[in-house]
Structure formats: C-alpha cells, structure tokens
Amino acid sequence: MNPANPIIVQSDRSILLEVDHPQHEEARDALAQFAELEKSPEHIHTYRLTPLSLWNAAAGGMDAAAILSLLNQYSKYALPPNIQTEVQTYIHRYGRVKLIREGEHLLLHSDDVMLITEIIGHKKMLPYIERQINRNTLQIDSDRRGHVKQALIHIGFPAEDLAGYTEGSPLPLHLRDTTLQGKEFTPRHYQSAAVSAFYAGGALSGGSGVVVLPCGAGKTIVGIATLATLQRATLILTPNTVAVRQWIQEILDKTDIPPEMIGEYTGEHKNIAPITVSTYQILTYRRKEDGPENGPVQKVYPHFSLFTNYDWGLIIYDEVHLLPAPVFRFTAEIQARRRLGLTATLIREDGCEADVFSLIGPKKYDVPWRELEQQGWIATAECHELRVSFPDEDAQLNYALTEGRDKYRVAAENPAKLDVVRYLIKKHQDDQILIIGQYLEQIKLLAEELQAPILTGRTPTAQREKLYEQFRAGKIKRLVVSKVANFAIDLPDANVAIQVSGTFGSRQEEAQRLGRILRPKSDGGNAYFYSIVTRDTRDQEFSANRQLFLTEQGYRYMIEDAESLLTTQP
C-alpha cells in the first residue's frame, strides 16, 4: 500500500487515475494494455477491466501475473481480493478451448472436462456440435468455424483458433528498396514488428488478428509488408473508392508487382486479379429477387461471391472498426483464410468489438500514439476544445424547446461557431486547414462564407481526387469536408483540423479526424486540432465522450473560452 501512487483499483473493476500525478503517463500507458478508458474529466480518469480488454491482453502475451503486478505497482491501496481472482479467471479463460484440425475434421478441444460438458449443454453451441469424440474433444461443423467462435466468446470462453489456413494462390512479389518516386524505402521498425506479430513465423497461432496503429503511422505499409511476407493472392477491403485507388498506388509504388496483377472492384470497375482492392459499400449492396413461388421477396448480396471466386490466401480489412454487419456474417464463413484487420482504434460505436475479436482475430500489435509521436513518426499534436455560447436568447430558447436527437443538431449548428472558424483561419493563414462537419447545410454555409471548396459524399470520385491533389500541392489552403474525409485519405501536409460538428459522441470518429493531420510535416511543425462546441449543451456532453480514446492515448484537450479569444484578437 502506497497512498502516494496514482491509481485506485475498486471492486467493481473500475480504476481511478489521477491526471495531475507525476506518474500519470507511465500508469496510463500500463493501463492501456489491459483496461478501457470510460470517463476523462479534468482530474480523475476512470478505466475499467472488461473481459474483452483482458482477453486482448492475453492474446497479446500478457498473463495475469504481469497485469496484477502493474496494478500493484501503481495502486494506492491493496487490490480488492475479487479483482485478483477475476483477472486470473478471465485471463485463464482465453485459450482454455482450442479449435484444431485433424484431417478434414474441425475439433474443439479442452483439457477441462467440465468445460466441455458445459459447452455441450449450451444452446448457442448445439447447432454446431456434430459429435463428442471423447471427454475432452468435440467434432464441430467445419463450415461453421466462425459461428462457433462467436458463440464461444458470448458464452465467455474465447477459443484459440489453431485450425490453420488455406494457403491460397502463390503470388511472387517483393518490396522495392527504392520506390517508383525515387525514395529509399524500408518498413519502419514498428511496421515490421506488426507484420511479425501477425504472421508469427507461419505458426498456427498467427495469421488472424488486428494491428492497431494511429492514422498517419503507415497501416497501409503494414498491409503491403504482410503481402510481401505471405506472397499469396490477397483481397483488400476499404471504406471507399478513393481509398481503393490509394492502396493500388501504394502497392505499385512499393512492390515490384506489375499493374495487371492488381484489380479494382468498385461501383466503377469490376476487375478481379491476384491482388483485388474493393470497398465495403460494394460488398453490402443488396438487390431484391423474387423468392419461391408465393414466397416473400428476398434480398441478396450479389458481390459477396468476391470472397469465394478466387483462391485468396489473405484478406485485409482496412479500417476494421467500420466493418459493416453483413460483412461480419460472411467473414464467419471464411475462417480458413488468413485475415488481417487494420485500424487506429478497436472501438466500435455499435458495440461489436467481440465480433472483431472472434471473426477477424484478437489484437496482435499496437503502439501508444504518444510513443510514435515522441519518436517522430507522427506529428506532435495540440488538441483544443473551444467553447462558444449561442449568439442570442432566441437561439438559446430554440435549443431549450428542441427535443430528441435534434437537440444536439441545434447545438452543433450554432451559427456563432462561424466567427470562431474565421478567427482560427486567420491565426493559421499560412497552414493547410481542414474544416470538418457532420451536417450538410452547416458545411455548405461554411464553404460559402469562407470561399473554400467543399467535399461531401455526393462529390464525384474524380472531383474528390482532384481536390485532394490540389490540397496536397498547396494550390488549396482550406478544404471544407463532411464525414467522408474521416478515413482513408492521404493529405500529408494538412496540419490544422477544425471540427465544427461530429457524429454525436463517436470516439472512433474523433480519432480518425485527428489522424487526418498526424503525418509528419516536411518542416517538422506541429499539428493543431480544434473542436468547437456549444457551451452547456448536448454538444459539449458528446464532445467529452468523443475525446475518451484520444485521452487514453495521452492527448490532453486545452479547454478555452471562444469569446475570450475573439475579444483578444488583433
């Protein structure tokens, strides 16, 4: 017991961390390995131990002794007895059941006879059990490997999948030493480490899982280096067509694969090649077809055949936190393919983190954002929350009388935010600025008032690419964008982001938006992230939730009064 330490561990699995404590940063980095941040007000941050956070830690090689040692090292008081027991129990649960393959048969094995008995009697598992081979082993429907893993994680015993993978069609390719642009190229040490953690030297324990790296840290390079390591036909799934073409450009630039070996499968092109890059949108496109005679109309996914009409050895899920539910369902059917998820955050606003864990795989590698910042791999970022009032009593009354989800929109579209945006643009007049918003009418007004080009989901792909290129070249200094720019755009010289509204309290979106400006700057300068919120409204409440993930990564928001800034400007 040491009252001078920075954390308090409580019996309800919550952990309180003092923000102003000298050991705050090292305690925060320790907790991030096995706990989730729930609240982050000014002085005390609340973390929680969850089954999934502990299972991800276990999959990454942490054992109960290491976790308890860290908790004891930083705790003010003795750990509650139940915490020690629960950490040991949950960590021990990961891998107590294993999926293995013998010949054509898929087996579920555990050394714990009573656990096998419990699984046999569980209704979630009944549809998948074909027979009991012995006291420790069940034969499972080999076509339902993913469904079995989903069922087991919901029961509370995540399986370690050692059933192996289909090799896939050979695809000889190598990384270039010099890119097509004439730059020397070698994957960074953490990118190579991520590939090694995923592949595990070809062992059965490798080949499926998620790599978590900040936006701007080169997740695409991790995917390309994995391609070069496996040298197997690969399907790459991305959020949009712009991302598809950026992947293709990067693969051609950094490997010796000829262009005809890469196919684009989007709404505009349907080419399948040994490396095929597609979008989640095209896969989830549904059309209606007549059912059996007198039966209901059926909705089918005509492009799901992309998963099976080529002998893929690897499937890469870019921005895996955005994976749509229908793709989850089909991923359950293709567990014999190696699967790599790439993301800046494991957080899903739909609460489906357990499905990512069971169907794509556990977290295999991550690095704290601030660690990469300190090493110079991503830009140093300053985060500011600027609080502004409504412009007059009528606007306040309108907010007070509005109900439901519209209440947030009224606060988010506060017209007083425009003056703050003007102030920030003047302050950063020589910088490359992204102004990001959620609501179309709001960003249209901003674009008109600021005389800046606008980019939304309705902007044609060719026009998007043209605007991005003009921004990269410095011909455009300001770009007003909707949430379409949250992910998978490469704007290396953007160094200021001004957020006027967002998707309610989305933590993943906040991470993605900061990520737009984190690529290292050619002049070594800082990045600046401003979030303008309406004081004492749902806008401010949601903003606090949005900041959780970045706070966990070590970013602190400087909260400032917007009116004070405006009155002190020259």
Q: Could you explain how this protein is built, in words?
A:
The chain has 570 residues and is of the alpha/beta class. It has four domains: 7-93, no CATH class; 101-161, Alpha-Beta Plaits; 189-367, P-loop containing nucleotide triphosphate hydrolases (Rossmann fold), CATH 3.40.50.300; 376-568, Rossmann fold. It is built from 22 helices and 25 strands. A seven-stranded parallel β-sheet has the order 12-13-11-16-17-10-18, sandwiched between helices. Strands 21-22-20-23-24-19-25 form a seven-stranded parallel β-sheet, sandwiched between helices. It has a five-stranded mixed β-sheet with strand order 7-8-6-5-9, covered by helices on one side. Residues 419-566 form the Helicase C-terminal domain. Belongs to the helicase family. RAD25/XPB subfamily. GO terms for molecular function: 3'-5' DNA helicase activity; ATP binding; DNA binding; hydrolase activity.
